Every structure is written in structure tokens, then in C-alpha cells.
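new request in #modeling-help
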Amino acid sequence: EAGVTQSPTHLIKTRGQQATLRCSPISGHTSVYWYQQALGLGLQFLLWYDEGEERNRGNFPPRFSGRQFPNYSSELNVNALELEDSALYLCASSFGGGRNTGELFFGEGSRLTVL
Amino acid sequence: KNEVEQSPQNLTAQEGEFITINCSYSVGISALHWLQQHPGGGIVSLFMLSSGKKKHGRLIATINIQEKHSSLHITASHPRDSAVYICAARNDMRFGAGTRLTVKP
């Protein structure tokens, strides 16, 4: 069974551009979580989607946004890129709603470099 | 002050040693995760626990809800255990800064 898949693996952008990162959860999972791990910093929670709705959001500016599609895959969009947005962006999935055991499964991450 | 504190920050051990990594949190949580991050960034969820103790192979995780403290133990450590171990408090997923473990042969 396929795990959580993320694309692209690496992405290079320049300041002011937009970046779009994608995540496909494990089959049957309806919850998708996004995290940022900037160089020298720990993991930080970005966004949580479940059943197509944004359920929670971390302490990030509005230029970080995303959505979840009917097939439960998700996109993370970062607008007006800044140098400090350079980071590893990790996606995780889990069962949602009443089936949520809390166990998370992580993708390999997308490394975004902003020049 | 970080709501989730891990110690130690770095840990070097000889192969075979017993390892303990500690995590203290100040927020109310429904569960706590222990994660393992390998070089390159890939993360594996090791445990999710809300009470007591869990064991998987050489790994043991304990949590004391009253004391808001959790520990991750590795018995008979091996160089392949070298990684960053992160505890994360559920509810908004507040993360510790991680413990970088290096196990030398």
C-alpha cells in the first residue's frame, strides 16, 4: 500500500513568486496535516484539513494557504515567497473524524528553496 | 518559553547503551507523539500515547499525564538508531526542538 506521497521533492523559487506543494494521503485517510521545518528550527504546525475543510491553522501569515480536494489530496500554496520560507514542508495523514486514532503517517517532504 | 521541552538536545552513545530522551510539556494534551527524523528529513511516527507505556521492539515510550512528562527509551542502541527524535504534543501539534542521537559503533 502506498504511503503518503508529496511532490515535488525539491522546488526552487525566487522571492515574490508562488509555490504550490502537493500531498496525497494514504488511502482511506481523510485528514491531512502540513508542517514546516525551517533550517535550524523545529517542526511547526501549519494547517490541518479534514473532509475538505480547514480544521485548524498554525501561527502563519495568510500567504500560507491550502485546500483539500474531494479525493482528500491536498495542496499547500505559499504566495509572495520570502527567503525565510525556505524549509522542508512535511505532510502527514491520518484517519479522520470518529476513526481518528491519532496516529500520523508522514511523507518524505518537499524541500523549498527561495533565492 | 517553548510549551514542549526536550532533553538532552544532543546525545552521543556507544552501541549497546541504554538511551533515554525526555519530554516535558506545559499544555494540556490529549496525546503525545514520538517521531523519528532521519537525515534527509523523512519522519516516522514511533508512538502515540495518552497514558502508561508502549513498547515496540527496542523502543519504549512512557507518559505521566499528571507530571506532564514523557520519556523515550532505546535499549541495546545501534548505529542505525542515529536520528533526531522529536516529541509532539497533540492539540495543535506543539513540537519539541528534537534530540539528535548519535550512536557510535
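bot summary: DSSP finds no helices and eleven strands in chain B.
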